[in-house]
Amino acid sequence: MEKITIYHNPRCSKSRQTLEILQNKGFEPIIIEYLKTPLDLEQLKRLRTHLALEDLVRTNENVFKELGLSLANEAQVLEAMVIEPILMQRPIVTFKGKAVIGRPPEKVLELFD
Fold first, then answer.
1. Is 82 found in the same domain as 98?
2. Same domain assignment for residues 2 and 27
3. Which residues contact 53 (CB under 8 A, 6 or more apart)?
4. Which residue spans traverse the membrane (predicted)?
């Protein structure tokens, strides 16, 4: 059986709430603290197949502007996310070939429809 994975930032209230929803539903997700264990380029590309780039990246982060990034240059954005994992939106939950961003946290329930 495929496990649920959450790309988690424990300092983020939405991420904590999403994890709590999963646990309350009886799931024991694989928890990846992506700031401690950044995703590599291939992992980001796999997530990108399920999520729009504008949903995957936090364009409001200062580093996005400091690096002069543009959503028009997907390769550059994904490469920057490897180096600066703070650019990744959170939380992201994957299950059975689907991915959602837990904003709002209840959105995670869409994975089980």
1. no
2. yes
3. 71, 74, 77
4. none
Distance CA 91, CA 86 (A): 12
pTM, full prediction: 0.93
**DSSP-derived pairing of the beta strands 5-8 and 98-101:** unpaired
> Are both 79 and 50 inside the same structural domain?
yes
CATH number at residue 101: 3.40.30.10
Q: Do 76 and 96 fall within a single domain?
A: no
Containing domain of residue 65, as a range? 39-87
Which tokens belong to 70? 């543009």
Q: Catalytic residues, which ones?
A: 12
**What are 39's two structure tokens?**
């995703």
Question: Which residues, 6+ apart, have CB-to-CB distance to 13 below 8 Å?
Answer: none
How, if at all, do strands 98-101 and 92-95 pair?
antiparallel
SS3 annotation, 55-110? HHECCCCHHHHHCCCCCCCHHHHHHHHHHCHHHECCCEEEECCEEEECCCHHHHHH
